[in-house]
Amino acid sequence: MIRSLVKSAFQTGCLSVASEGLIGQVLAHKGYQSADLDALSSLYNAVNSGQIEREARGAVTQTLIEYVQPCLEDTHQLTFLVGGV
Fold it and tell me: How many domains does the chain fold into?
C-alpha cells in the first residue's frame, strides 16, 4: 500500500493529507516491507527538495518523520533521515 501511495504522489506531484495519514497508519501498525521504506526514502527526499508538495500545512515532512523514524530504527536503516531533521 505504501508504495502505491508514494507512486501516486510522484504522479500527481502532491502528497495528500489522506495519503500521508494512511502511510502513518500502516507504519504505526508495522504493516510495511523493506521496499516500502525505500519508497518512503524517495518520497521524503522529493518532498524535501520541493519536487513533491505536501497538501498538509506545517513543518516539512514532520508527520512522516514521526512515523518513519521508529520504523527505520527497528530495521537499522537510518540513512532515510540523514540531514532530514
Answer: 1
pTM of the model: 0.70
Residue 37 to residues 1, 7, 58, 75: CA-CA distances in angstroms?
12, 13, 23, 9
Q: The domain containing residue 18 runs over which residues?
A: 2-81
> 54 - beta bridge partners?
15
Residue-by-residue pLDDT tens, the chain, 85 positions: 899 999 999 999 999 988 888 888 888 888 888 888 889 888 888 988 989 998 876 654 455 666 665 555 554 443 333 333 3
